[in-house]
Amino acid sequence: MTPQPEEGPTIRVLIADDEPMIRAGIRAVLATDPDIAVVAEAGDGHQAVELVHRHRPRVAVLDIRMPGTGGIEAAREIHRTAPATGVIMLTTFGEDEYILQALGGGATGFLIKSGEPEELIAGVRAVADGAAYLSPKVAARVVAHLASGGAGALADRRTAARERVDALTAREREVLALLGGGLSNGRIARRLQVVEGTVKAHVSSILARLGVENRAAAAVIAHEAGILPPRPPEQR
């Protein structure tokens, strides 16, 4: 029988990285949060997928590049076969192309390995809560890479993003801004004082009208358009 997730507030996490010291560091950071429990570790993407099916974690933290089956392939397989598990990709500077591939592969969180420990915990909590989480450094790198043709290309992309956002309703723009800021549907609902079902409907409409497949891609557009709100108190 496949083990089922434990009841209670604990966020069950799987870590996958081919470097044991990196895994140890991630585990140590996550151990500082009493609501997070690392339930499995993998040294490659293939093993990560197997362990996700065995342990059913709420979040899988995957190195974007690993020998054999890498993080991107693993993210796609996890998204296809275990969609209840959210995926966070760990990346380093210079891996922009991999980040863009992962955006289309089902990953909903992106963190820089050299980032602050607090970002890792915030990212795990956000993805566990059903939100998309882009490290500010990752978002900046993605936007810059998409506009790698130079300052003019960057201005063009920002103008295009603003035009796409302007086509949304005022409420949809509010929701997109909060989504881009890493808030889940529940937190957006509380922030806007509406029911969560209303937020879900807005998010579905936003994804369709922007022509993107997931929250992470929508968050990139929010970053490009420059509509992110100040980080709310519960995110600090």
From TrEMBL:
Transmembrane segments: none
Top-rank taxon, per record: Bacteria
GO molecular function, one term: DNA binding
Annotated HTH luxR-type domain residues: 161-226
Keywords: DNA-binding, Phosphoprotein, Transcription, Transcription regulation
CDD domains cross-referenced by the UniProt entry: LuxR_C_like, REC_NarL-like
InterPro entries: CheY-like_superfamily (IPR011006), NreC/VraR/RcsB-like_REC (IPR058245), Sig_transdc_resp-reg_C-effctor (IPR016032), Sig_transdc_resp-reg_receiver (IPR001789), Tscrpt_reg_LuxR_C (IPR000792), WalR-like (IPR039420)
Protein name (record): DNA-binding response regulator
Organism: Streptomyces violaceusniger
Upper taxonomic lineage: Bacteria, Bacillati, Actinomycetota, Actinomycetes, Kitasatosporales
